Amino acid sequence: MIHELKILPEHFEAVTSGRKQFEIRKNDGDYKVGDRLYLREWNGENFTGDSYKAEVTYITDYAQKDGYVVMGIEGLEGAK
User: Fold this and answer.
1) Per-residue confidence of the chain (80 residues) as pLDDT tens digits?
2) What backbone torsions phi and psi does residue 15 show, to the nearest 5 degrees?
3) Would you say the pTM of this structure is higher than 0.85?
4) Are 27 and 67 in contact (CB under 8 A)?
5) What one-character-per-residue DSSP string does the chain give?
6) Which phi and psi angles does 12 have, rounded to 5°?
7) Distance CA 42, CA 4 (A)
8) Which CATH superfamily is domain 2-75 in?
9) Domain ASCH spans what residues (predicted)?
């Protein structure tokens, strides 16, 4: 499944640089390992036009708020 998600610029830059290899999200999309994330940079008012594609490689709800998950992600080749 492909999930299209908004991501703020500071988090987007951390993901695209490889420093942040996870996403914490409310599990309202029933995320699963193997799903694809289409992360669209959102400045709080508009999409910037930048995007990044990643695959969910790991998922856990350990020590998260109810209904939230941590997803390990890996950028897809030519992801940006």
Assistant:
1) 999 999 999 999 999 999 999 999 999 999 999 999 999 999 999 999 999 999 999 999 999 999 999 999 999 976 66
2) -70, -50
3) yes
4) yes
5) -EEEEEE-HHHHHHHHHTS--EEEEESTT---TT-EEEEEEE-SSSEEEEEEEEEEEEEE-TTPPTTEEEEEEEEPTT--
6) -60, -45
7) 12
8) Hypothetical protein. (2.30.130.30)
9) 5-77
